[in-house]
Amino acid sequence: MAAPMGGRCGRLEPSPRRGERSAVGVRMDRAGFWVSLTAGGIAGMCVDLILFPLDTIKTRLQSPQGFKKSGGFRGIYAGVPSAAVGSFPNAAAFFITYEFVKSVLATATPLYLSPVTHMAAASFGEVVACLIRVPSEVVKQRAQVSPSSSTFQVLSNTLYQEGIQGLYRGYKSTVLREIPFSLVQFPLWEALKDLWSWKQGHVVDSWQSATCGAFAGGFAAAITTPLDVAKTRIMLAKAGSSNASGNVFSALHSVWRSQGLPGLFAGVVPRMTAISLGGFIFLGTYDKTRSLLL
Length: 294
Description:
The chain is mainly alpha-helical.
């Protein structure tokens, strides 16, 4: 999730009271693990598909061609097959890694280091999930800025011109975007839930957890937007160009030199909106799917 589209919003379970360790974070039985995996995959897919138009607008705003030349509001669902195919395994890979690392670290670390546990688990989850997310993202974004070409044509052209390596262009920049995002989002989300629980004297409800997740995700999305811009420029760059090398700092410098601060934060509003809304959609879908499966 992304949080969806650049930051996975994570599994939004109720916060423990101060001094308590979440049972889910310490140990999960096999059935619970696969239920969480399936629910997370379905929730992630729903978020990506429902909010796809906002993602397309964000990508076109960040494109070096400019919004209008990239398609404007035309073909707003260009690239959606790539998102549909990659979304479920991407979210599933994140959850497998996140839950495994969190359960291992939770048994070996004291309670006051819980934020570090969440940060580490989320970071590992993003590194693994990006192995699936990046090829899907490359095809999706190239289709979004070329609405006259089908997703299959974009995939074929990429493989023909650049091979498998072309599908992984931007892997490093995506990881460099996702890890800072998770380092901001997860501790902030946990802290907000903990504070809200303490204020009202009991564990937060689902909608309260969603509110905290939406705020944390939106804030993390805003401050990591320059990294998202760099990732987009690298993925959309023509083969052989300077940005195609995947150098994040070079891409950021190029945007700063040509467009200044507004260029570094291009698409910040649809990005924040999508990730904040994604928190609510993800939570509702996740909880509903999990309850049905259990």
